């Protein structure tokens, strides 16, 4: 019985690397099955099983993760970085819930669109989880130099992970352009969504500019992630507005292609800049 318990625990909690790798492979193969129309192929059932196992890992590992975030929330409440930590933990929780919703719905309804969105928000959650962990490590350090080195290390790693986020973004953009996917609301709701989207984009830009004048690199990375998410929301808004108000001509597809490509290129350049700048700053402090 004890042996079975150990095996079960190992399957549910396979370790940090596998807990990230298995969902990426599982959901990635599932997307490939739907993209290439292999839903009736014998190998597709292996993909379904792997994706289900990946979903179990995400859920089982997400429960203690939420508990850790709650504990972190209580620990940093009395510190000067409470507001930023609260924002990171709240964003992480929301992204995890929304990622799970999209992945489960995508698997149930065999929707590449929903699965692509789920993978996007899952990667976004992983990056924000990384930032929470780095901030937690910083909180136990007393030496300002050590805090700065750790901060720039997290900043650089976050930039590298943004390349992975960009892959998920490319999948979403491709679905919007060639798959005819995207949200469609009543006109009055489009105005409300547009107002909120521009509010998010404006506040994200302001925070990025402010974080560029010094401060904790972890907070700067968090603001960059928020700006990336806001740009993706802006692109989604554009597609929605063309779906509602456009004439369905080829010009709409051209506009979506150009703007979608621009957003992805901007994210790649931003990720490269973060990775290089963070690495240089860390190197200067360690010399």
Please indicate the percent range of residues in DSSP E strands (runs of 2 or more).
under 5%
Average pLDDT metric: 76
- Share of helical residues: over 70%
Q: List the secondary-structure elements in sequence, H or E.
A: HHHHHHHHH
Structural class label: mainly alpha
Outline the biggest β-sheet: none
Helical stretch tally: 9
Radius of gyration: 20 Å
| Count of strand segments | 0
Residue windows where pLDDT falls under 50 for at least 5 positions: 77-82
Distance between the termini: 54 Å
Gross geometry: globular
What do you see in this structure?
- The chain has helices spanning 2-12, 16-35, 42-76, 82-109, 112-139, 144-178, 187-211, 217-245, 250-286.
- The protein has 287 residues and is mostly helical.
- Helix 6 (144-178) packs parallel to helix 8, helix 7 (187-211) packs antiparallel against helix 8 and helix 8 runs antiparallel to helix 9.
- It is globular, with a radius of gyration of 20 Å.
Topology of helices and strands:
Elements (H helix, E strand, L loop, with lengths): L1 H11 L3 H20 L6 H35 L5 H28 L2 H28 L4 H35 L8 H25 L5 H29 L4 H37 L1
Helix pairs in contact: 2-3, 2-5, 3-4, 4-5, 5-6, 5-8, 6-8, 6-9, 7-8, 8-9
Which features does this protein show?
9 helices, 287 residues, mainly alpha
């Amino acid at each position: 019985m004890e042996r079975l318990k150990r095996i079960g625990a190992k399957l549910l909690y396979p370790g940090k690397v596998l807990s990230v790798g298995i969902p990426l492979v599982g959901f990635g193969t599932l997307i490939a099955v739907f993209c290439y129309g292999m839903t009736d192929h014998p190998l597709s059932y292996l993909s379904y099983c792997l994706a289900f196992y990946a979903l179990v890992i995400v859920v089982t590992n997400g429960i203690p993760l939420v508990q850790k975030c709650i504990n972190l929330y209580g620990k940093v409440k009395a510190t000067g970085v409470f507001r930023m930590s609260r924002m990171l933990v709240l964003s992480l929780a929301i992204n995890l819930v929304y990622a799970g919703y999209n992945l489960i719905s995508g698997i149930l309804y065999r929707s590449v669109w929903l699965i692509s969105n789920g993978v996007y928000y899952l990667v976004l959650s992983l990056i924000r989880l990384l930032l929470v962990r780095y901030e937690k490590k910083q909180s136990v350090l007393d030496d300002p130099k050590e805090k700065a080195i750790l901060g720039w290390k997290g900043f650089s790693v976050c930039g590298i992970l943004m390349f992975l986020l960009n892959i998920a973004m490319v999948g979403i953009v491709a679905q919007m352009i060639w798959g005819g996917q995207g949200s469609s609301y009543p006109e009055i709701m489009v105005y409300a969504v547009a107002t909120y989207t521009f509010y998010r984009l404006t506040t994200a830009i302001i925070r990025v500019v402010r974080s560029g004048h010094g401060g904790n690199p972890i907070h700067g990375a968090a603001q960059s992630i928020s700006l990336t998410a806001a740009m993706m929301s802006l692109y989604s808004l554009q597609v929605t507005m063309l779906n509602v108000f456009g004439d369905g001509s080829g010009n709409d597809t051209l506009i979506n292609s150009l703007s979608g490509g621009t957003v992805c290129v901007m994210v790649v350049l931003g990720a490269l800049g973060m990775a290089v700048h963070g690495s240089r700053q860390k190197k200067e402090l360690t010399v």
